[in-house]
Amino acid sequence: MPxxxxxEVSSNVLSIDIGGTSIKACILSQDGELISEFKKxxxxxxxxxxxxxxxxxxxxxxxxxxxxxxxxxxxxYVKCGKVQTAPNLAKNKWTNIDLAQQVSNLFxxxxxLINDADQQALGIxxxxxxxxxxxxGTGFGTAMVFDGELLPHFELAxxxxxxxxxxxxxxxxxxxxxxxxxxxxxxxxxxIEIYKTVFNxxxxxxxxxxSKHITLDLDHNIQLVxxxxxxxxxxxLWQVAEKYHVYxxxxxx
Length: 253
Hints:
The protein is α/β, with parallel strands linked by helices.
């Protein structure tokens, strides 16, 4: 019996989701079942790498469960364990930041760090056909999956959608607060039509904190999802092969 318990503990995954509004964490089994509570702390206003790591250090002990691997979803472009952009965190502070290495060294565990929408997508999609995930929150996140395989990440949020706005500006929380729910829904409808034409997806999933404001009549192949629907992505990240932006960082001795 003790041997079996040790094996179960060794397969647990610490899943961290860094967002522009809050930093969330939980412990998952290897199959994505919650082992701990799902807890969150507001993202610091001065959201530098040091401040974000300080929140992670505060958050993780409160989960009161063991883990052997770490998954991190990050709101920006990530390559080989390093953050390249973070448009909704501290400005000009996140270029070429080895966040995965720092967290790996902090807890002495291997880390996989990917874009936050990509991590959520792994927990949400059906694994059949070409599937896209939107996250509508502080900004606009996207992930693309084909037959369950995570495709290379594109920062589609920073394509121009008007002469003066990219998707982050157009549909993010600041826009929602400024123009109101009715006009915001009209903007989202326009984005959906663009994606339908350009990508011809099989299924589109829409999540993120602002998805609760959606009042549109959605097509049969569009589903609303919650952050909790994507929790399993933290565990599934450790079930996929190292490819494209999936990269394992080990603690430095």
